[in-house]
Amino acid sequence: MSKQYPLTKKWRITVAWDISDPYDRNQYDVDVSVFMLNEQRKIPLEEYFIFYNQLESPDKSLIMASQMPNNAEQQITIHLPYIKDDIHEILFVVTIHDAVEKNQSFQQFRSIHMTIEDFNTNKTLFTFTEKQFYGETAFELGKIYKKDGAWRFNPVGRGYNAGLQEFLDLYYEETVEAPEATPEPVQIIEPIKLTSFDLLKKKVDIVLEKKALQKGIARVGVVLDISGSMRRLYQSGTVQSVLERLLALATRFDDNGILDVWIYDNEFTRMPSITEIDFTDYIEREILGNPSVKKFGANNEPPVMRDVLQKYFVEEKSKLPVYLIFINDGGVKKASRKHDNVPRVLIESAHQPLFWQFVGIGNGNFDVLKKLDELEGRFIDNANFFQIVDIENESDEELYNKLLNEFPFWMKEAKSKRVIH
After folding, report:
1. What is the pTM of this model?
2. Mean per-residue pLDDT for 361-370?
């Protein structure tokens, strides 16, 4: 029985995978294997290694269904009371047979999905999906482990450059004595190390799934306030950090993985777009260390907003909508008949497939932006605002949740009013 579901005694586990276009799934030989481990994290007998040539454990507690040709899933049944006492952990591994020889990896997959259901009621107990890959040929999906007399599930999601034999070498030791033979060293398989930027992308994926947003749905741009009151945040590295967090979002939204960048004070500069390849030290290299870039004056929003519209809807037309993040630390001018202003640009651009996500940082005066929801005269509500007093200490998860809170609603309304086709 499990800790979370103490009445369940029999589980149905389904591992499924989805291969990306244009790859032919019939060319991939995907294997699901199960390692039933003792307290020393070893297979007590070879028969506790369950795979395509050995579909049952010796205690009959775990049974793997025969996989049909070209079927992109594998089912496993576990009868918890039958598991022998010396088994403390059950590990689920997915590998690609002959991956190196065929130049295949999980980077060519959309996802791997693992679901655990109550066998008798069909109720879903646990689910885990992995969608971000980095060239792995093997994946530890998850494990069931015993603690305090109950079985628990823990998603792992760890990728390796390895094959099935490396896992068997790691978890199984021959007990037959062969004194004259020199034992071969166990090959230690190292997980693929993810960079901090890779981890940011994983966090974005979690929020996208939660918000029911698919990837590749929008071009992404950011407008950065570089007025005098922002000087400390630029010089301390805070703006660079924020830019990297936004780039992670852009790589999931934009198929090209590009984040377009503008900076503005009383003038604006359309900066070089950035990608994963060249984001390091972007602020220092392109802005602070560039004497030709105007910075640290007063702020004036409408000109840069007009240039955003010029780029996306005159110079670079596309079927994709635009998700534009506008970062400001206060002082947005109120509407005026004599001068161009933020509300006027928003009203005029409401027919365009562009969503303006304003982010106020610090304790500045955001009266104009706080009243965006009350702005009348727009064909569609095309803007949102939220404030973060201390963006340096805002967690990645909270930032992404706030950034994507209103965008799904705009997408839905934009489609219904044919702003997006």
Report:
1. 0.60
2. 88
